[in-house]
Amino acid sequence: MYPRVILGRGRERRQHQGHPWVYDGEIASMTGQPSDGAVVDCYSHDGAFLGRGYFNSRSKIRVRILTRQVDEDVDEALLRRRLAWALERRQRLYPTATSLRLVHAEGDGLPGLTVDRYEDTLVLQCAALGMDLRRDVLAGLLRELTGLEQIYLRNDVSVRRNDGLELSHGFLDTPFPTVVPMQEHGLTFEVDLAGGHKTGFYLDQMDNHLALHTLVPTGGTVLDTFCYTGAFSVHAATAGAGAVVGMDSSTAVLEVAQQNAARNGVGERCRFEAGNVFDRLRQLQGSGQQFDLIILDPPSFTHSRDALAKALSGYKEINLRAFKLLRPGGVLVTFTCSYYVERTRFESIVQEAASDARRQLTVRQRLSQALHHSEVMAIPETAYLKGLTVEVW
Ligand code: SAH
Q1: What are the residues facing 296 on neighbouring strands?
Q2: pLDDT, tens digit, 9 for 90 and up, residues 139-177
Q3: What is the pLDDT, as a whole number, of residue 111?
Q4: Nearest CA to 247 among 298, 302, 311, 206?
Q5: Cα of 302 to ligand 1 centre, how many Å?
Q6: How far is CA 193 from CA 160, 199, 201, 295, 320, in A?
Q7: Position 305 confidence tier, pLDDT thresholds 50, 70, 90
Q8: Which residue, by CA, sits nearest to atom 16 of ligand 1?
Q9: 299 CB under 6 A from ligand 1?
Q10: Residue 42 Cα to ligand 1 middle (Å)
């Protein structure tokens, strides 16, 4: 018998929809005194079993549900089944990939746990206390199920604070090199597992890096804005682009980008320049230069609903400027990774920018985060990466 968390009257609706979180404000009463990280049962006010999961009194997310089956224990065996299924699903989706997301938290029924694989190394991130406390068990299971030994902990995501956890990163136990090569669709990229963005690479763009190969005109000119370590640039050049310009505000990532281009035999066709994309797009417009393909992959312009209007004007501005730099028949690949910018909203901003630039758009493809970053239907924010490929006339 686990301690019980009983929801207020009528507060079970989101649970019925499949949302895996119970917020503090939804709870009417409790039986027992679960310690933080312990397993609790959640019941509706009318006494219906809703789910079982990890409790945390220090978080607004009081319970993270791991199972809705009343007869399923939340124990090591459950973690093993969930991890095994996450790995099997990846094996079916990406049978040859050696660097990819293996566990996408709630999207794999393991709330708060992220595991990325970069060749022979696993990078673990625990965003929730329930997972953090079981870190060594999880690491042991992952080693057993993947056969990989090296584990790096990237517990430096700020959401950990919401769960009362500190931020840190480092080796789980035995050290190993943390700047390593990884493979993506047959190309090699260097990743910095300890200091790179996210866990080192934008794995969520993996499917879209590949999609670029169908869009690049042979010998064409490509502008890759917000290029980070050059993934889109290098894919564009190896797909046949004649000249690629990558842009980022961080000079450190651009050095890696240039090395990544050289490593894949396209160093001479890629040039990387430091600068603020907003300024550089304006300057390019003045220079009269034109491109066949432009990629806009900015960081999230807002982390709150309050700043949405400003973020939308930022998206509009870069899209507008990109339209002015594209040749007739050119292609724009444009993204937003803001949770708060819904797809329909994003597409209307892109269309508004096109009208202002007097350009006509034909939709070629709608893009999302890679399939290994599984969405949860009940949590709309988990569908955070929205992209659009348009032909521009
Ligand atoms: N397209 C990349 C990921 C881009 S992440 C990939 O597929 O790997 C966003 C990048 O934008 C980061 O590298 C960050 O340094 C850069 N950035 C953020 N604001 C910027 C700005 N105003 N101008 C230029 N680069 C910026």
Answers
A1: 225, 334
A2: 999 999 999 999 999 999 999 999 999 999 999 999 999
A3: 97
A4: 298
A5: 14
A6: 19, 6, 8, 25, 35
A7: confident
A8: 226
A9: yes
A10: 42
